[in-house]
Amino acid sequence: MSSHSTGWRSALATTLTVAVAGSLLATVPGGAASAAAPAAAALPVADVLDVDFTDGTADDRARGLTPTLFGDPEIVADAARARTAYALDGDDAALYPMTGQYDAMAAAFSVECSFRYDGTALAGGEQDFCGAKEAGGFATYVSGGRGGFMAHIGGGYKNVRFDMQAGTWYHTLVVWDGASLVLYVNGEQVARTAAVGAFKAPSVGAQSFAIGADAQPSNGVGFFAASTIDTARVYSSALGAEEAAALATAAVTDPVAPTADVLDVDFADGTATDRAQGLPVTEWNEPVVREDVPLGRNVAAFDGSSAFLYPLADSYDALVDGFAVECTFKYDDDLPASGEERGNICGAKEAGGFSITLYGSNLSFNPHIGGSYRNLNVPVVADRWYHVVGTWDGEVASLWLDGVLAKQAPATGALLPPPNATARNLVVGGDATTNNRANLLAPATVANARVFSEPVERTDVLALRRDVLADGLATAPVTITSSTPAAGSRITGPTTLSVETPMDEAVGRTSELRLDGSLVRPGDEVGPGLRSGEHTLTLRGNDVFGRPIDQSVTFTSATIPVGGGTETGQAGGSVTLSSVATNPSGGDVETTFVRAEAKVAEGGFQGTVTQLPTALEFDHQQAEELDEPLQPGDDVLVTSPSATGIAFQRHDVAVSTAEGQRVSWTGTVDPTRSVTLRAWNGEAWEALDTARGLTEGTVSLTGDVRPRHHHDGVVPIMVTGEDPFADDLPNEVRPSFEDPAAYDFSLAHLTDTQYLSEGADEPATQAERDVWRRTYTDITEWIVANSDQRKIAFTAHTGDIMENWHNLTDDRAKAVREYEVASAAQQIIDDAGLVNTVLPGNHDNQYGQDNGPDALYNDYFGPERYASLSRSPRWTASQASYQPWKPGDNANNYVLFSASGLDFVVVSLGFGVTPEESAWADGVLKQYADRNAIVLTHAYIAPSSNPDGRGGGMSYDGMSVRGSVVKQNPNVFLVLSGHEHGVNIEVRKNLGQPGNHVVELLADYQFYKVRAGQVGLGGVGTNTPDTPLQMGSSFFRLLQFDVDRSEMSVDTYSPFLDDFGATEYDDRNRYDGTEDDFRMPIQLQHRATSFATDSLVVLDPTDDVIGTDTARSGWPAEVTWDGLTIGETYAWQAVSRDAASGEELPGQVSQLALFTATADGVADRAAPVITLGASDSVAHGAAFDPLAGVTARDDRDGDLTGRLSVLGTVDTSQAGRYQLVYLVSDKAGNQSVATRQVSVQAAPAPVNARRPGINGTPAVGQVVTADQGRWTQADGATFEVQWLRDGTPIQGATSGEYAVVAADAGTRLSVRVTALATGRSPVVATSAEATVGSVAADAAMKLRKKVKQGKRVTATVSFSAPGTVPTGTVVVKVRGRTVDALPLRADGTVKVRLPKLRVGRHKVTAVLLPGDGFERTTVSRTIRVRR
Predict the structure, then answer these.
(1) pLDDT at position 24, please?
(2) pLDDT value for 41
(3) Is 1382 helix (H, G, I), strand (E, B) or coil?
(4) pLDDT band (50, 70, 90) for residue 736
(5) Cα–Cα distance between 495 and 517 in angstroms, integer?
(6) CA pair distance 749, 1050, nearest whole angstrom
(7) Is the pLDDT of residue 39 over 80?
(8) Which residues contact 1403 (CB under 8 A, 6 or more apart)?
């Protein structure tokens, strides 16, 4: 109870009379401010009719009458008054027969009626609370805003009246003593009128008494009053003033709530303290004690994973013959479809005990009495406060709901405490289970929890309810205090819908907001689509106390068109702007197109944060400045850093103060990530739009810029990329595994094979036992056979390996046999050397009581087994190792292994996890914090009852392991478990810290059933073909991991049945198939998020009108926009109005668009540009290309150089100026002309770099050639050659060759080269002189060898030389004596007639004398003269 309530209740105890008149019953005009002190006189007893609903019925206690009901009146508990009452909604009534009673009332009567008017027509016509009039009789009523009573006395109706208000309780008593009518209101006389004469009874057929209405003919009812009645009595006597006061006092007597003596937890004080016995409280997973605004007090909030636990072990002796439990709660999620997995509110049951539990939509009080649970069920709804009391008095169990007895059932016998002493606890927010744990937790809010050692009565229940709910129920009903659009306002354009109530927290989750009957939500944009006229916004539903909400506001609107989109067309050199709007009236739409400025974001920064900033300026990591503009259409992407938390880009965009601004972002992001466009609103980074990525193409986000987003002339914008870690990855359910090429490695998970092990031992026939054995070995054999193909890197068994080692009384020999079956099946995996591990379930370790090295489990699955296995080649190849938690004990262990380049640590925790074991696991995970971690445990989460297998509660060890192990280590990405029969798929986001996402999977098929005939056992043993066999655990799961995408695909398969998906074998028919074939995100340590921005622009409208067009509703309006520049970004706004309204403020809708101008949309009026980049001066004689260095380029057609034409030529051999004309045209016919003057330079004077030379031997008769030497600047020059003899030109010797003549002999021969260039003086260079030497001539002589004596002979002598004919004088001698000397003839010969010679031999010699450049040359012959 709040401090306000406590203070009020304290005041009530000392000033009861004030409370009677002021707090609970209204003060009436004419009445005193306080009632008289409670009268000592006994209360009168009504003898005609006595109805007060205190027994939970509307039956009459005076004459035992049961009423005829009209409509659906309901017995309710009035929390503030702690009284039972009758609620009538304006068409309900209860009718009691009065025939034969009016004679007793002929002399006097009194009528008592205690009521509250709940309707809305207080000032309207007659409405009756307690009515028995029809042409006679009497009635208590309201009319014209005043309460009253009328009775037909003395020939007509006599009235007494009083002022009254709606929603206020009034106790009325009217007394007729035969002389006057006296009206008492709240114990005070407020009116009297004379009433002399006979009292007339109603007409026959209408002689009945109606509660909530008036009696009518034919035993009907009418004149209904929406009201709550708690007393209706008729007395056959006239009561006095003291009796009136006593009755009024009794009507408001405040019962005192009993005090709980076993457990008294009331969170109103802000703690979870027990005020009854001071029982210690154990907190599970951080429940929150917080204020509940509608309730006006502190409460405990549980999220479905948290609870408070209180020990009751020493208290059960006080409960065994009777008790009561009180629990006030509100369920905060959708009610589960079935089951109690998420439905325990105040639970103390475990094979005994009691609880307040939700089974689906039924609330149950279920004490274990006389050997069974006595479930008392009543339907409830979510998101509503309920006050629940369950009582048992030794014979009857009762369930009270909101002060009203809802269910009763016989319950004889004794209350059975939970057999296991460690389960004797009461859990607030869940249920109790063994080992002092919380279980089956609920997402609920609880106000109090109490246990009484004695049953409580009706008045006790009402008082208890008052103390916890009175303040909440006293709050005003939910109304709409303000809204947008506001009541009575008129809107002309899009408007963001908002609704304010005095207490938004009091509005139930199922309440609906509708506009003209259509469902809407706060934040929706309304207006477009409304026709001119009045519109109604309605809030209907229930508040969190179950009270109806029916509130409406009306407003008007102009006819507001609906925007149908925009389009920018670019073709034929023009831009066409098109906008579609639909007129709700069906009339034409006038659209004005207005230019908008595209304010491109430029300058900013980016980085990463762990969670969304709460301030405009904030710290961040991976900081990087952004300098370039985020321009649309430039095909430049700016990529954010990669973040395990949130990646962001932050910009300030300068804008005007114009209305209708809109921000637009485009970019890319992975389909499994999301990107959000945000603007700072002064308090937070408000999300304007969000989207997931696309496989191909860009994502676009847009949002309206509101005045709240403007700050000092800029709009602060932030784009964030986040990992939604959403369980919504597309997946097709197929009877197959994934393609091994599509994933990197896999993990096999089997669990709860207990029935398979039991079945291999227990059935009577060997045939049955063999089949059951195969159900297990088929799994392990399949895993071995497919380990390579399916890339199985690890195999996990999460416990309940066998069945019958659960209780301390179990047969050890049987357990040994089952262990041997399981061990042999698992040995198949071991023999193949596969990396694997197991852990004990509750059926393997006697529910957590067979522990340590000597446990039976360790005899078969002890550390030595896995230590030996870890030395196998497959383990070595996987870099795998094994370590038990303690020497000799494999109840807990960890395995290290590597797969696909990643390192893993797998921590296994057996059933019944202790704090010591949790601390060990936490230490291992912290030791290997850099490894991706998997936690295996037996009893972690409970099955889902939803078709897709998502959502369930926590199992036996779940809260402990999650809170102390998983939550503390962000490297944990996966938890696998079994224990409870069914499937649960949980994605725990931000577990323990932002960005820490964990997938939790339960896959326990042990109770799934297979027909015996399906597996060949029909007719074997006691089986029929339809006998259900619990072979569901022949299914296992293969988890297939895609490392790059950080995703996991899960398939479920039974090798024994050769069947995918176990859904059809669940005899509870809970699931739809998607629970066994799905794809999930996984938080591998490299999983990160980034995005890339293409553009970020704020569209800022101006007043510049582009054009206006009128179109039919739903048809495009169009204008053209010319004069744009290619490549520039443009924005525009289309403002559409009802063309025919003629209103001063017509309805309108605006649409903004953005585009980049292209060549297609801009007319080509620009001629190509000719660039004369080449030199205009050309060297004389140089090669000249008129197109060299000349380009032509068009802004549309690009490079047109190849299309250039040239008019004119340049002769580089002639110095001078030449004119060239260049012409080119683009495709649009735009022509460009450029003129160029080219100067041919005069040839430069040649320069001799190496003097000329003579090639060859300068000798007479030889031909020598001239080497003109090396010249520079000689391009275009001509050369002349002149041979010189002793420096003097040799006449005619001007060629490159010269034949040396005899005249040259002994002279100095040289060659002179003259270089001639136009416009330049000749340049002369002369070779070095070479002396010409004499020539050795060849000589020959023709002479007869013999001659007769006396004969004369002639000697012919010839001289020759290379390239010339020798000249000179030849001397002929015979025996040394000169016989002749004569010159050589022109052919180089001479003939000499020798004189007559004597007989004998004679030597004839011819000598060419030296001279003329020839050397001395001699030739001789011998001649014989004979006789």
Answers:
(1) 39
(2) 52
(3) strand
(4) very high
(5) 18
(6) 10
(7) no
(8) 1374, 1375, 1420, 1421, 1422
Contacts of 47 (CB under 8 A, 6+ apart): 62, 104, 235, 236
Assign a CATH topology to domain 1169-1234: Immunoglobulin-like (2.60.40)
Residue 3's pLDDT band (cuts 50, 70, 90)? very low
At 739-794, the pLDDT tens digits run 999 999 999 999 999 999 999 999 999 999 999 999 999 999 999 999 999 999 99
Same CATH topology for 562-592+1097-1161 and 1338-1426: the answer is yes
Six token digits for residue 1153: 């668009």
What's the burial of 556, exposed, middle or buried (CB within 10 Å: 0-12/13-18/19+)?
Answer: middle
Question: Which tokens is 495 given?
Answer: 């408007």
Residue 37 has pLDDT above 80, yes or no: no
In CATH, the architecture of 3-252 is: Sandwich (2.60)
**CA-based nearest residue to 450, from 348, 526, 361:** 348
Give the pLDDT mean for 190-209.
96
> CA 471 to CA 787: how far, in whole Å?
65
**Does position 729 have pLDDT exceeding 80, yes or no?**
yes
C-alpha 948/C-alpha 727 separation (Å) is: 11
Q: What is the pLDDT of residues 310-355, one digit of tens each?
A: 999 999 999 999 999 999 999 999 998 888 888 999 999 999 999 9
| 561, 1149 Cβ separation under 8 angstroms | yes
What does the alpha-carbon distance between residue 1262 and residue 1299 come to, in Å, rounded to a whole number?
6
How many CB atoms are located within 10 Å of the residue 127 CB? Answer: 23
Looking at the chain, the whole-number percentage of residues with pLDDT higher than 70 is 97
pLDDT at 1313 over 50: yes
Given a cut of 90, whether residue 11 has pLDDT beyond it is no
The third-level CATH classification (topology) of the domain covering 562-592+1097-1161 is Immunoglobulin-like (2.60.40)
Structure tokens, 775: 């159900």
Tokens 């802000």 appear where? 270
Contacts of 7 (CB under 8 A, 6+ apart): none
Specify the DSSP class assigned to residue 8.
H
Residues 1251/1267, Cβ–Cβ less than 8 Å: no
Predicted pLDDT of residue 20: 29
DSSP 920: H
Domain boundaries defined on the chain: 3-252, 275-474, 482-557, 562-592+1097-1161, 740-1081, 1169-1234, 1247-1331, 1338-1426
Q: What angle do CA 363, 366, 372 make, to 5 degrees?
A: 145
Cis peptide before 485 (omega within 30 of 0): yes
**Which residues lie below 8 Å from residue 45, measured CB to CB, with a gap of 6+?**
none
Going by C-alpha positions, the residue among 74, 79, 81, 80 that lies closest to residue 57 is 74
pLDDT band for 1174, please (50, 70, 90 cuts).
low
Containing 653, the helix (H) or strand (E) segment is strand 646-654
Given this model, what pLDDT does residue 38 score? 41
Cα gap 364→1400, rounded to integer Å: 176
Is the CATH code 2.60.120.200 the one for domain 275-474? yes
Which residues are bridge partners to 88 per DSSP? 227
Biggest CA–CA distance in the chain, Å, is 226
Helices and strands (H and E) in the chain: how many: 12, 102
**Peptide bond connecting 584 to the previous residue in cis, omega within 30 degrees of 0:** no
| DSSP-derived pairing of the beta strands 1177-1178 and 1231-1240 | parallel
Distance CA 749, CA 848 (A): 22
Q: How far apart are CA 990 and CA 981, in angstroms?
A: 28
Place of tokens 């204020």: 291
Does residue 44 contact residue 22 with C-beta atoms inside 8 Å? no
Alpha-carbon span 1306 to 1412, nearest angstrom: 9
To the question of domain 482-557 being in CATH 2.60.40, the answer is yes
List, in order, residues 6 or more apart from 1069 with CB less than 8 Å away: none
Give the global pTM: 0.72
pLDDT average, residue stretch 396-422: 95
